[in-house]
Amino acid sequence: MGQPSSGFVLGVVVAGLCSAASAGAGAEPTDAIPLIVIVHDRAEILPETLDQALKEAARIYGQIGVALEWHSAAARERAAAGKEPQTSPQPYSVQLIIQDKLRTTSHRTANFQMGAALAPGRDCKGTVYLFNDQVAEFSSSRRVRPTLAMGTVIAHEIGHVLLQRMGHSPEGLMRAVLNAGDWERAAIGLLLFAPDDAAIVRANTTTCRA
Question: Residues near 105 by Cβ (< 8 Å), separated by ≥ 6?
Fold first, then answer.
């Protein structure tokens, strides 16, 4: 397993945020671009918790016309056994590895590092990480719903892969540090990709189907 090269870090400016129900997902456009996410749940998260977190991430992508398709790693391996390799263009696919704990303390710049992404390649594939202990600690100390925090981190890290860059943006979901105002927007479904980032995500995801 490679060393994650970009992390989603939450600064100490996040404080005293009360949880709130997120906004409804809304209908995806009929021309939504598929994105396959293969989930490796090594932390054994409660199914209902993981389901709500994945729905939150899917809602964020649905707002920009990208439809996330979730697959468990074990089920996908069983389905692929004995099948001939497919040669036609396939959707972009991302491996989501959920670890029980953050296993490195190097280059920590804030209290919490809830996720990370490997340096993205150009082969329509990528790998991102979610660190369950960091999500739990952040949610407890900052009073943010765990499923909201988890879904937001997943969406952010997948964003690094699809944007094909490790850097962050000055606004929107891809900011390096989320403050209290950002989490308030997340809680009502308004923390989304900035327009320029949304356009790049759609373009790069579409390219894989060409």
Answer: none
Which residue is listed with tokens 């296993």?
Answer: 103
**Length of the chain in terms of residues written:** 210
Q: What is the pTM of this model?
A: 0.82
Q: Are 98 and 157 in contact (CB under 8 A)?
A: no
CB contact at 8 A, 30 and 197: no
What are the structural domain ranges in the chain? 6-17+30-207
Tell me how many helices (H) and strands (E) the chain has: 6, 6
Please report, as a single letter, which amino acid is at residue 63. Answer: Q
Superfamily of domain 6-17+30-207: Collagenase (Catalytic Domain) (3.40.390.10)
Neighbouring C-beta atoms of residue 78, cutoff 10 Å: 10
Which pLDDT tens digit goes with each residue over 45-94? 999 999 999 999 999 999 999 999 999 988 766 665 566 556 556 789 99
What span, in angstroms and rounded, lies between the C-alpha atoms of 134 and 17? 17
Q: Per-residue b/e over 3-14, b at no fewer than 16 CB within 10 Å?
A: ebebbbbbeeeb
pLDDT at 26: 46
Task: Give the amino acid at 198.
Answer: A
Helix (H) or strand (E) holding 54: helix 47-62
